[in-house]
Design brief:
The structure holds two protein chains of two kinds. By secondary structure, chain A is mainly α. Chain A has a single domain, classed as ABC transporter involved in vitamin B12 uptake, BtuC. Chain A is 80% helix and 0% strand. The longest helix of chain A is centred in the middle third of the chain and has 30 residues. Chain B has a single domain, classed as Orthogonal Bundle (ABC transporter involved in vitamin B12 uptake, BtuC). Helices cover 79% and strands 0% of the residues of chain B. In chain B, α2 packs across α3 and α3 packs antiparallel against α4. Classes of the chains: A mainly alpha, B mainly alpha.
């Protein structure tokens, strides 16, 4: 087992996986709190379009991902500020980006090289992470975490209760755009390391699981980070030593993440029953008159 | 015109016929998805279907069977887990990543070249046989028929779930039935246009139409017209170039939506003021989309304003 760590790609995979798991768990807490799971997924897929576009142009795929994810984050933030109807704006931006991705992929595969580069981005390649990738994700991860720490209180306030926060003078809209940009940077950096698929698993599963088990923000975030690390390390260890059949890492990580989420749902109901959340549309029933 | 000579080829004719069926059923189902706030499900279900197809290929059975099993199973999971609006997107996301993780596992276990699986991901509009067209047409008509039967209660429960429930409309049963219909629509569309385009055809025409007109029936008709035009133009452009159909359709859809989205506050705001005046005099009949006009965004009943948690 320990002999594995003498190989460089194993060490890089663990290093990059650790960085990514920590950053995505922290960002993911706010993603769940703000009900922006779809935005996270969309930004990851948009990053895919950016990466394939960069491959066509022959520039660094990270640059392409950052560029398109930033553009999309700004577009989503500008178009959909309300919760109602926000998912439609995200969906439209996403479908356009996916169309572009299909175009770039087809140009790229027509130009002689095969499409496996694109498929690698889609399905992840944590085992082919280089030391430079590790350093880039470390730098952008630290920058993102510092930004979150700096904005922590207003962002939490604006996420939990946007209307009261706005009334108190918190720049809710600006925070929402900044958060989307941070989310875009995180997903781009994570796509580079673990692929489009795993981004969403690491982004929402640890935080959603943690929030079923505890309510306090800091405890939730710490638990989410711990869970993210368990999923990533567990997935890597299982892939390396668990079976001799060489099953993909992303399968193990997504399965660990999904199972822990499914288990946390009944546990969360058991621990802190939320009668008002049992029924669909219950909040409408309790408030008989519109709030505004 | 030279551009239309390609219509003589039977595979292009089949592409047009199957594409038209898919565009119509996707526009109708998509309208309800947009007003119910299920956009993410429209993105997730095609991807989940991809995983199912990969599993079926591994087992050596028809990928279509895997497609239906996975999408319908995921719909039931979404309906059961995501009862609360804020929780729904999270459970959709986790179900999707779980399914895709399984898909990767199936693909890695399958040693052969899974060409049909990749064609499900990226679509294959020009590889459609006449039998495929017939199957697509029949299942589209069946799905449309069920949607028509459920039309009024579905519309009522989409716009005003509390009142609908109070009037005895089985909203939970409707929500589940609707998700299963979406799963069937996605499965039959994915085989024709691929996972990527299904999402565009579901959301694009419906979202644009819902912003232009307000009455549900007209919005659905407009969505069908838009969807069919995008599909026809997309196939025409793609058949005359080397670029993929999905790119043309996605670009057309976004290119029409963007100006509509940016300009729609002009007319939606005016209608809201007009409605506020008429509302003082007349009472609205139940089921009329009263919420539409109050907000400048497309109404999605699943989300309650101000309740992010």
């Amino acid at each position: 087992m320990l002999a594995l760590f003498q190989q460089e790609f194993v060490r890089n995979a663990f290093l990059a996986g650790t960085i990514v798991a920590v950053v995505t768990a922290v960002i993911g807490y706010f993603v769940i709190l703000r009900a922006q799971a779809f935005a996270g997924e969309a930004l990851a897929d948009i990053g895919f379009a950016g990466a394939t576009g960069a491959a066509v142009l022959g520039i660094s795929s990270l640059l392409g991902m950052f560029f398109l994810a930033l553009l999309a984050a700004l577009g989503m933030g500008a178009l959909g500020t309300r919760i109602r109807g926000r998912d439609v704006e995200i969906g439209m931006v996403l479908s356009f980006a996916l169309g572009l991705g299909a175009l770039f992929l087809s140009i790229y595969s027509q130009s002689g090289t095969n499409a496996s580069a694109g498929v690698g981005i889609l399905f992840g390649s944590i085992l082919s992470v280089t030391l430079i990738d590790v350093l880039i994700s470390l730098a952008s991860g630290i920058a993102t975490l510092l930004m979150i720490a700096f904005l922590f209180r207003p962002l939490l306030f604006a996420s939990v209760d946007p209307e009261v926060a706005e009334a108190r003078g918190v720049p809710v809209r600006l925070l929402s755009i900044i958060f989307l940009v941070l989310l875009g940077i995180t997903t781009a950096e994570t796509v580079l390391v673990v692929g489009v698929l795993l981004v969403l698993a690491l982004l929402i599963a640890p935080a959603a699981t943690a929030m079923h088990l505890t309510r306090r923000p800091l405890t939730s975030i710490s638990l989410a980070v711990a869970l993210g690390l368990i999923f990533t390390w567990g997935g890597l260890i299982l892939a390396f030593v668990g079976t001799g059949r060489n099953l993909p890492v992303s399968f193990y990580i997504t399965t660990l993440a999904a199972l822990s989420y499914f288990i946390s749902i009944p546990l969360g109901r058991l621990r802190s029953p939320r009668p008002e959340m049992e029924q669909p549309y219950s909040s409408c029933k309790q408030v008989s008159a519109p709030l505004h | 015109m030279a551009i239309f000579t390609i219509l003589q080829y039977s595979f292009i004719q089949n592409a047009f016929l199957a594409g038209t069926c898919v565009a119509i059923i996707a526009a109708v189902a998509g309208y309800f998805m947009v007003i119910r706030g299920l956009t993410f499900a429209g993105h997730a279900l095609p991807n989940i279907g991809f995983a199912g197809a990969a599993g079926a290929v591994l087992l050596g059975i028809d990928p279509v069977i895997g497609l239906y099993i996975f999408t319908i199973g995921a719909s039931l999971g979404i309906a059961l887990l995501g009862r609360e609006a804020t929780e729904r997107d999270t459970s959709i996301g986790i179900i999707m990543t779980f399914a895709l993780g399984l898909g990767i596992l199936f693909l890695s276990l399958y040693s052969g070249y899974a060409e049909r699986v990749y064609s499900i991901l990226f679509g294959q509009v020009v590889g459609i046989s006449s039998a495929d067209v017939l199957i697509t047409a029949i299942s589209s008509i069946l799905t449309l028929g069920i949607l028509l039967v459920l039309f009024r209660p579905l519309l009522f429960s989409s716009f005003d779930p509390e009142v609908a429930e109070a009037r005895g409309v089985p909203i939970r049963f409707l929500a589940m039935t609707f998700l299963i219909l979406i799963a069937i629509t996605v499965s039959l569309s994915v085989q024709v246009v691929g996972a990527l385009l299904v999402f565009t055809l579901l959301i694009g025409p419906a979202a644009t139409a819902a912003r232009i007109v307000q009455r549900p029936l007209w919005a659905i008709i407009l969505a069908i017209i838009l969807g069919v035009s995008y599909t026809w133009l997309g196939i025409l452009f793609a058949a005359n170039s080397t670029w993929p159909v999905s790119f043309y359709i996605a670009t057309l859809s976004f290119g029409v939506y963007l100006p509509v989205r940016l300009l729609s506050p002009l007319w939606i705001g005016r209608r809201a003021r007009k409605l506020a005046i008429t509302r003082q005099n007349t009472s609205l009949s139940p089921g009329s989309p009263a919420e539409w006009e109050q907000s400048d965004s497309v109404p999605t009943t699943g989300r309650v304003p101000g309740s992010t948690r």
